[in-house]
Design goal:
six-stranded antiparallel β-sheet; single chain; elongated; mainly beta; 112 residues
């Protein structure tokens, strides 16, 4: 497995692009991901300290990350279900004192 990525900061936030290739017991695959983060801005509360992040990742059917392959007690190699697309998002804001409140969501599309 190998991969790389690029991260850059702009006036609109921090953007990242990542990619990876893998080969193994179940074939060769790839993944591609995009991230966008805005940190420490004034939003709903009017106070600085709010943050949000959105990330999306696509994985081909044969992509494997380290640890994806499981060997059962009788030596049979099994592969846990792998997702095709994953979208994550969160929004965080200051709440009380040094406590923050966070709302998070995840959407998965699985391979057949």
């Amino acid at each position: 497995m190998g991969g790389g990525g690029v991260v850059t900061q702009t006036l609109l936030g921090v953007f990242g692009l990542r990619g990876a290739l893998s080969t193994g017991e179940f074939g060769t695959g790839f993944s591609a991901a995009f991230d966008w983060s805005v940190i420490n801005f004034r939003g709903l509360t009017g106070n600085r300290g709010e943050s949000f992040r959105v990330s999306a990742e696509y994985r081909s059917a044969h992509f494997q990350a380290p640890g994806d392959i499981v060997t059962t007690a009788d030596g049979i190699i099994a592969r846990p279900s792998n997702y095709k697309m994953r979208i994550d998002a969160f929004y965080s804001m200051p709440f009380l004192f040094d406590i923050s409140a966070t709302l998070a969501a995840r959407y998965l599309v699985l391979h057949d």
